[in-house]
Amino acid sequence: MVKPAYQQPIDAITYQKTLHFFDALLRVLHPFMPFITEELWQALQERKEGESIMVALMPAIGQVNDEVIVAFQTTQEIVAGIRTLRLQKNIPNKDALVLQVLGEHNPVNDAVLVKMGNLSAIEKVTEKEATAQSFMVGTTEYAIPMADRVDVAEELKKMNDEVAYYEKFLQQVMAKLGNERFVANAKPEIVEKERKKKADAESKLAVLRDSIAKLSK
């Protein structure tokens, strides 16, 4: 995220904050990896004679913003989805892509998405393009139009195979939830986990069937 563009310098504020975070991380990691953390900590900046990470104070514990953490975890999943599609479709990293969003999306880290995913645009849409390849992050669908990059017959076969898999998976989950003894005797969190599996499978099936219908036109 902080890496500057090719052959461009990093700005001073970003550089100093990066060193600050790296320093704090090394201090936290030091009890578990003492030698390498000492070596790196010494190299971060000039140290006084005898100064060691062994006696450096641990970072102060402050307030944690859970919303920031959740938003960034979601951003990581979206970037991973984009990169997976690039690998699957042999799309070079230098080729800018359009990312379509169907559903709820927090734009707070869009600048990170644009940079890490090499995106030319992030578009909120109500319907994805017929050639688009999509992936789910939570209950939101993200799609990348593929235009001439798609082998329609191959994609239809792949999606139909996925439909068959999720249909079988859903049947297994429904069998558990339809078992009164299981629902009555299992821990509430286990039952809730199965219900989430059901909701996720139904969501993925809906996306796949919609994609098949659009690609078959």
Structure description:
With 217 residues, the chain is α+β, with helices and mostly antiparallel strands. 56% of the residues lie in helices and 10% in strands. The protein contains seven helices and four strands. The protein has helices at residues 12-29, 34-44, 66-89, 110-117, 152-177, 180-185, 188-216, and strands at 97-102, 119-124, 133-137, 140-144. α1 (12-29) runs antiparallel to α2 (34-44) and α3 runs parallel beside α4. The two termini are 40 Å apart.
Short key terms for the protein model shown above:
3 domains, 56% helix, single chain, 7 helices
Structural class: alpha+beta
Q: What is the tally of beta strands?
A: 4
| Amount of helix | 55-70%
Task: Determine Rg (CA atoms, Å).
Answer: 23 Å
Strand content: 5-15%
Task: Describe the strand arrangement of the main beta sheet, using strand numbers.
Answer: 2-1-4-3
Write down the domain tally.
3
Overall pLDDT score: 91
Quick summary of this structure?
With 217 residues, the protein is of the alpha+beta class. Helices cover 56% and strands 10% of the residues.
Write the topology of this structure:
Blueprint: H1 12-29, H2 34-44, H3 66-89, E1 97-102, H4 110-117, E2 119-124, E3 133-137, E4 140-144, H5 152-177, H6 180-185, H7 188-216
Parallel strand pairs: 1-2
Antiparallel strand pairs: 1-4, 3-4
Helix pairs in contact: 1-2, 3-4, 5-7
